[in-house]
Every structure is written in C-alpha cells, then in structure tokens.
Write a structure and sequence with these properties.
Elements: H1 6-20, H2 29-42, H3 48-57, H4 62-71, H5 82-99, E1 108-111, H6 117-130, E2 141-145, H7 148-156, E3 158-160, H8 169-175, E4 176-178, E5 183-186, H9 188-191, E6 194-198, E7 212-217, H10 226-238, E8 240-248, E9 262-265, E10 268-270
C-alpha cells in the first residue's frame, strides 16, 4: 500500500478545498489513502504526487470526478430527518400553493442530493399534496450533486427493498415497481419530476434563471469550514424567493448573526 506524505496530503487537501470546498483534516488522511489505493494501483502510480499531478492535468475532468466520488461519503436514506418532510408538506407547500395559484410554477432545489432518496421523497409528497391538480402545475425538482457516480445511481432509481422499509406502505405500492427479487424501481411518473444535474456548490455564479421557493441542502455543509459555509448560505439566500425556505441537516447550524435567513425551527430557515 502506498503511503501519502504530509506534503502530498497538504497539496491534495488544498486543491480539493479551493475547488470543491471540502475541508480534509489530518484525521481524514487514513480514509483518503484507503479510498484512493485502488485508483493508484490501476493506473500504476508510484506515489501520490504522480496521482495528484495526473488529476490536475487531466483536461477531461474525469479524474477529478472520480477523486471527489471516492473521498465523499454519500450516505443517505429514505425519510431521513422526517420532520423536515412533514414541515415541507404541512407548512411550506400550503404556503406556496396559495401564493402561486396564478403561475403554478413551484421551484425546488435538492442540493447535494446524493443517490436520489431526498428529491424522490419530495416528488412523492408533492404528488400526494396536489392530487388531481398536479398536471396543472410545474413542480419539477432540480437535484444536483458533485458526484457523477451517485447521480447515475439516482437517475436509475433502483433501491433495495430493505432500504424502502421506512417508506410508507402506500407509497411503496403506488410509487415503486418490482425490479428484481431484492430491489424496486421508482415509477416513471415520479422519476420524470426530478431533473438530475452535476453541480459544484463552490461555483460563485449560479446558472439559474429563476429563484427557488424551497432549497434542501442537508448534511452537505459538514464538509465545509465556517467561511465556505457562510459564503454558500449567502448564495442560497440570493437564490431564494422571499417567503422561501431553506432546510439544512440537523447536525448543521447557521450563525444567526451572519445570515439574513430567519430561524424557524431546528434546521429550517426562511427568507423574510
């Protein structure tokens, strides 16, 4: 197994933080080495310096995509932090349903969507909420992540039956179909409501024509230092319509003195 020197780790860490906002502490050194070993072996690199040079010089962007996919932990599951979904349905959706009756254009962003459980859950909630009126509304959800690997999994929409145990039975019957003995697949009516895109949250210019009514960015900022998080929250604020909601992870928090978002409840904020 190849080892990484302090100099190599610093070089790799600084490159990742500068370009992707991910803060790799010394405690993550063993994790990084372990997750990158197979790549170094496949490419016959003799040192991490050679690998880092390869990543930085690769103009296709594939090398860095693989790097990011390897070092990020895309752990999520259906109904995670379920109180958020209850608030989204009972408060946020009700509010925007009344406010948007004329335009019928509801814009939601699932930022850092990982393998798709979050945006698909939002799509199922919306389908239930609007019922027969659903076809009259544009409620497509933008779901973005930095990892092309997990986005591919999300687009496939195939999940183990075991992972669906937390999903209400009525949803399992209505919004999933049998894929094989161990897995189920999201039905097309829900799949078609989610637009998956690769996106780096460190982009200072956000390419969105319209602002969002709801943004979910949960358990993503745990990778960022305070300055990076503050800058990202400011960009979220600028991309949120007045009256819009921001949902973050319960392990995260915003400094209320540094954000214009108003605290509503744990991990829920609003632009007022």
């Amino acid at each position: 197994m190849l080892t990484i020197t302090d100099k190599e780790f610093i070089q790799l860490s600084e490159y990742i933080k500068a370009n992707y906002g991910i803060n790799l502490s010394d405690k993550k050194k063993a994790l990084v080495v372990g997750r990158l070993q197979n790549i170094l072996m496949e490419k016959s690199f003799e040192s991490f310096s050679q690998y880092i040079e390869y990543v930085m010089k690769d103009k296709t962007g594939e090398a860095v995509k693989t790097l990011i996919s390897k070092i990020t932990t895309n752990h999520t599951y259906f109904m995670r932090e379920s109180e958020h979904f209850q608030y989204f349905k009972n408060v946020a959706l009700k509010y925007w349903y009344e406010k948007l009756k004329n335009s019928k254009d509801l814009r939601i962003w699932s930022a850092g969507c990982s393998s798709g459980e979050e945006p698909y859950t939002l799509a199922m909630i919306i389908a239930d909420f609007f019922g027969n009126e659903k076809s009259l509304w544009d409620t497509k959800i933008l779901a973005t992540d930095i990892s092309s690997r997990v986005l591919s999994e999300a687009q496939n929409g195939v999940y183990s039956n075991e992972s669906l145990e937390a999903v209400p039975k009525i949803w399992r019957n209505q919004y999933f179909q049998r894929f094989d003995n161990q897995n189920s697949i999201v039905v097309d009516s829900i799949k078609n409501e989610v637009i998956f895109r690769t996106f780096n949250l460190m982009n200072t210019t956000l390419p969105f024509k319209k602002k969002f009514h709801v943004i979910f960015c949960r358990n993503v900022m745990i990778y960022f230092d305070s300055e990076t998080k503050r800058e990202l929250i400011n960009r979220f604020y600028e991309q949120t319509e007045y009256g819009g909601y921001l949902f973050i992870g319960h392990s995260e928090s915003l400094n209320r003195e540094e954000t214009k978002f108003k605290y509503i409840m744990p991990a829920v904020y609003r632009k007022e």
